[in-house]
Amino acid sequence: MRTNKFIYISALCIASMILPQSCSKSFLEQKNTSGITEDALFKKPEDGIALVTGIYNTFHDMDFMLKALWYQANFLTQDFQNYGADVFFKTYEVPTDFGALNTFWTRAYQGIARANSAFPIITKMENDKIITAELANRLTGEAYFLRGVLYYYLACNFGGVPLELKIVTDDGRHPRNTQDEVFAAVAEDMKKASELLPWKEDLAAVDLGRANKGAALAYLGDAQMWLKKYPDAVQSYQQLEGHFQLESKFLNIHDFNNQNGKESIFEVQFIAGADMSWSHTNNNHWLASFGMPEEVTQFGYAYATPELYNSFETGDERKAATVIGPGDTHPDPKCQISKYPRVISTFGGINTCGTKANPWKGSDKARSGYYGIKTWRDPNVTGNTGDTYIFSGQNVIMMRYGQVLLSLAEALHKSGKDGDALDIINNRIRKRAGLGIASGADVMSILLDEYRHELAGEMSLWYMLRRSGEHLKYVKDKYDITVPAGKDLMPIPQVQIGLNQQLLQNPGY
């Protein structure tokens, strides 16, 4: 897009602002080096690392992570609803001037532009003997991976978008490519990345949280699924076997003390202990307090539905780790409800999410009384009235092995191997959940329910449903809602169409 034209300048700015530190998350910390000159840049290995770190920085924006990824992954399924100004997700009438989508579009293309600028710089640094071939390969792999990830989520949200796979030298006003063309480009980037990146277990401790070979293969498999290349997806997903494991307990996946755990494939790194007030930096986020009850944090904008709560089978251990209802205790002892300041002052320190007689539905009783747990795991977030401890430094998992296994099961099913698909569902996913063999003979229906109960409240459920082609039927079956034609996609931001009149709006908007 138009911002790509100025990418080299952007690359210099990012490299001068973000320098790697000595522990895994702190490679995100910013250091002011405003007096640096271009001649001093890219003269040592740390400069190349900082250059690529700037691409990761794309994710560090509240609207990007919350309102343009978490919203769509959850509100469009109808299992979660919004109390605040963005209630239009309930009717799928997302306005074309919804600011978060423009933020997402703009930042995604900035990240893509940073990746495009990094390739020649890394090559030059290798040719000049500033970095080793090994480091050059890793950094190049990270840049391919991050560019592919950004296009992946753009296509998940909007369908087809303009593909910019090199530094733009014209005015940047290009038409949209098709959705299939975008996912084909994602697949190519992930293939290249998978050939260059190390496995997660081979990363040094200082690099934990950066892209790895397994992450590239997981997104490669997902791109192949979107392209309906199911045997290829099976092959991609199966390569992760032995490199990642399911957590023994579902509750452990999002544990604050288990970030970058053995099930996590790719998660956006945030910094715990950073300023968590309104003057915070974008190294932390608002997902936690946004979805906690108003009675706890003053906010409580995102709440779950009783339909989600009641949809879990008896004995499904995922329920308590996904959604909390009236009278329930928080399943994580680090987040005891009785210790939150507002609960102490207003409710005498009860240790449940309201009570069945008096559910926590907010001051105007407009919420459901049910709330997601997966983002409510950081014990530091209290939502105090003094505008402190509102933001969280906990990482956000974007891709994990449980999701990959379900995607593998779907790929096997669509390759005509229902027995193998059911083996994964029953003996790995459902077994970990404390359940027996799934009932029914419709493998796709079983898969849709497993996607729901495995991924609700995370960053991917709607995308998995839309990818399956069963999303419209799913919403009709679960909520008796008919999605208006074309509204399963997000609208192209109107401001972008104003800047680039070659962009055509999605049908229905």
UniProtKB/TrEMBL annotation:
Positions in coiled-coil regions: none
Keyword flag Ribosomal protein: no
A Pfam family this chain is assigned to: SusD-like_3
Locations listed in the record: Cell outer membrane
Residues of the SusD-like N-terminal domain: 81-220
Keyword vocabulary terms for this entry: Cell outer membrane, Membrane, Signal
A GO-annotated cellular component: cell outer membrane
Highest taxon of source: Bacteria
Domain RagB/SusD: 263-509
Main location, first listed in the record: membrane
The keyword Kinase belongs to this UniProt entry's keyword annotation: no
Family per similarity comment: Belongs to the SusD family.
Protein name, per record: RagB/SusD family nutrient uptake outer membrane protein
